[in-house]
Design a protein that fits this description.
The complex is a heterotrimer of chains A (231), B (267) and C (204). Chain A has 10 helices and 2 strands, in the order αααααααααββα. Chain A is mainly α and 231 residues long. The termini of chain C are close together. Classes of the chains: A mainly alpha (231), B alpha+beta (267), C mainly alpha (204). The interface between A and C is large, with 50 and 49 residues.
């Protein structure tokens, strides 16, 4: 991974927002997008993209855990024995997520209710483990922090894109945290009310998530041709 | 001081320290936040019960509103006999208080298995349920002079647990309101049971107290009568779950209401 | 009979890949050839078959409320379920580490082929998913839990073998260039998922 090597040779006096560091954020948005290029974090990307609302909550939680995990592992990187590094990473991520969930449950119960379903999914989200393993273990906290933000955002935009497509065609509406579901088509347009529009229930079913992600990859790669695989 | 971080001793020491630190951190968080969490859960329950009689409460005023509207809390057994009854403030530590009966826990522990194993065999189910350590809470409310009964129900949807509260009017037959919730139903399909447009359909329907099927949720789009509502299109399994839990639970309360009526008639 | 039901359900109806999308990352990344797919698929069956029953014991004799009663009556109200995630993960991670060491020692070729994905099997969501489903579905005995673990594993194996076989052949078709590789794999998996949906409702 080229960015890892870049970061290793980085000099101490480098400012936080140097060109290389900015690349840490911008790269995962397109050229090394965690979902469409690195193939990480697919499970959650598919399972929770039926509604925009869930996608937003999930993205924020992943961003948060990714930042926390990356910084902690990066601080500990010189002390972790190689042989048990996977367990150490898993335990730290899991502990982080559980503590966050417990705190939310006590102080912000309404948010926690929405989040607790995803707790298991966040822990096993391969993006988190993948970034800990590939980046944080070899880099200082500063760049690790930026790497976390970049990858978190790269993950978020795919999630949002997929969920917007699925919710518009599947439910004829967009939901947003705190606003509930906003139907933007007039009620009279729906077939049940004598109109012509019928929701495509297929979009809500799990398999269509895969097809939507496939199409997003198609669009992305036809614009960014260097990502095309030979086979 | 150079430490070989790949030596067995170091690895071992590291794991022990990590386990202790993480374990302690989790235990402390969990223990210190427990009272707050229990309070939040209880408030949520109060809000849901009040929601079934269409009183909107918030987390801030849930306890006070609950005391204002709920006049009596009763727990009955499967045969409709009263186990105990409480009025006044809720003692969170009192296991006998009907408010503190965790029917979801009882459902997970015994009821779910019995329902699954007896299938359509109603007699077997009744026999086994009456032997199981299960109690049925009932909340008698007074909303602006109108007496309402709130009955908690719990069952299984497509992916996980579903639960809710059904409120009956003073005639103990007409549904005043219903509130349902779920853990992991499909958003846009089964998850719609949470929405008011579905719960609204229950209002003013009546229970068929003389029949085996007290109330039914029919397949989306099928004709309905005064004892049934339309299920959710595309959420068939969840709708069936709602149907099952309402039927199974309300039957028990009908027995209780009948015995109350009989006592009154004898007097 | 119940065992067969759970097993078949795990393979076809509640398929880890097609119904829950669990273990997608390694599914997509390691399905280029049938040979490596077979290796990873078998590893998943093996790990699920071992970790689900172990986690079942852990859940029922340590973590669940009242599970510690065997230690004495004063522990009857202990509820350690807040530790369940971390305990499940610890068990899974140690077993995966064990499998990794065994494979490295006895099948170095396979080890080379699976590369970084063997350690990543620990974060293969299907493994933790298996443990969590086991917890949620409340299997009555350890036999059911084991059968469930094996069934889910076989379901996962079946899915990855099928997609790997298709991907080997699709090399000879004219797939639009930007869709090649990952894109078409997603779409084919979606179509397979639709096909698998027709198993829904089967009850043995």
């Amino acid at each position: 991974m080229s960015e890892v090597q870049e970061a290793i040779v980085e000099k101490k006096s480098e400012p936080l927002f140097s060109k290389k560091n900015r690349k840490l954020i911008s790269d995962p948005l397109n050229d090394s997008n965690p979902i469409t290029v690195q193939v990480l974090g697919i499970c959650s990307a598919l399972a929770i993209t039926v509604q925009v609302q869930q996608a937003v909550i999930m993205s924020l939680s992943v961003l948060f855990v990714l930042i926390g995990g990356n910084i902690i592992i990066s601080l500990m990187r010189n002390g972790i024995p190689d042989r048990i590094r996977i367990i150490v990473q898993l335990v730290i991520v899991a502990a982080l997520v559980i503590i966050v969930n417990e705190v939310l449950k006590a102080f912000l119960p309404d948010i926690s209710e929405k989040l607790s379903v995803f707790v298991g999914l966040i822990i096993t989200n391969c993006i988190i483990m993948g970034r800990l393993e590939a980046f944080a273990l070899a880099n200082k906290p500063g760049p690790s922090f930026l790497d976390a933000i970049g990858n978190g955002l790269g993950y978020a935009w795919i999630l949002l894109a997929v969920s917007i497509v699925r919710e518009i065609f599947g439910s004829g509406a967009i939901s947003f945290p705190g606003m509930g579901q906003v139907k933007f088509l007039p009620e009279g347009w729906f077939i049940g009310n004598g109109g012509f529009y019928e929701n495509n229930n297929m979009m809500i079913l799990p398999p269509m998530a895969l097809v939507v992600v496939g199409v997003i990859i198609w669009i992305q790669r036809s614009r960014n041709t260097k990502l095309i695989e030979s086979h | 001081m150079a430490v070989n971080k790949n030596s067995n001793g170091y690895t071992f020491l590291f794991s022990i320290v990590m386990v202790v630190v993480v374990g302690a951190a989790l235990a402390i968080t969990s223990q210190s936040l427990k009272p707050l969490q229990t309070k939040n859960d209880a408030d949520k329950k109060r809000i849901d019960i009040l929601g079934a009689i269409q009183v909107k409460a918030t987390r801030e005023n849930a306890a006070q509103m609950f005391e204002q509207y709920v006049v009596e809390r009763v727990a009955i057994n499967y045969n409709g006999d009263v186990l105990n009854s409480k009025t006044g403030a809720i003692d969170a530590t009192d296991k006998n208080d009907p408010f503190n009966v965790d029917i979801q826990k009882e459902y997970r522990a015994d009821v779910k298995k019995i329902v699954k194993e007896s299938g359509k065999n109603q007699e077997e189910m009744a026999a086994r349920l009456s032997a199981a350590p299960v109690s049925f809470p009932l909340f008698k409310c007074n909303k602006d002079g109108e007496i309402l009964y709130v009955i908690p129900v719990v069952g299984t949807g497509l992916w996980g647990p579903i639960w809710g509260y059904v409120a009956l009017k003073d005639d103990k037959q007409t549904i005043y309101g219903a509130k349902f919730d779920h853990k992991t139903e499909t958003p846009g399909l089964g998850a719609e049971i949470k929405e008011y447009f579905f719960q609204e359909k229950f209002e003013n329907k009546t229970l068929n107290t003389s029949s085996e099927t007290v109330f039914s949720v029919v397949k989306g789009g099928a004709p309905t009568n005064e004892h049934s509502v339309d299920g959710i299109t595309g959420g068939t399994v969840t709708s069936k779950g709602v149907d099952e839990m309402i039927n199974r639970t309300l039957k028990v309360y009908i027995k209780y209401f009948e015995s109350v009526n009989n006592q009154r008639a004898q007097r | 009979m119940e065992y067969i039901n759970i097993f078949v359900k795990g393979i076809f109806i509640e398929n880890m890949i097609f119904a829950y999308f669990l273990g997608m990352c390694s599914y997509l990344a390691v399905s280029k050839t049938v040979k490596t797919a077979m290796g990873l698929g078998l590893a998943v069956i093996f790990v699920l078959g071992i970790t689900v029953p172990i986690n079942y014991l852990l859940e029922n004799y340590v973590l669940k409320e009242g599970a510690l009663t065997w230690m004495g009556a004063e522990y009857a109200t202990m509820d350690l379920s807040f530790l369940s995630f971390i305990m499940f993960i610890a068990v899974i991670a140690s077993i995966v580490q064990l499998v990794e060491m065994i494979v490295e020692k006895f099948a170095p070729a396979l080890y080379g082929a699976l590369g970084i994905f063997l350690p990543l099997i620990a974060v293969n969501c299907s493994i933790l998913g298996g443990a969590l489903f086991m917890q949620e579905r409340q299997y009555t005995d350890i036999g059911q839990a084991t059968v469930f673990g094996l069934g889910s594993g076989v379901g996962w194996w079946l899915a990855i073998i099928a997609i790997a076989a298709i991907r080997e052949k699709i090399r000879y078709s004219h797939v639009p260039a930007p869709l090649r590789g990952l894109g078409i794999t997603f779409i084919i998996t979606g179509l397979m998922g639709i096909a698998f949906m027709s198993f829904m409702g089967i009850d043995i």
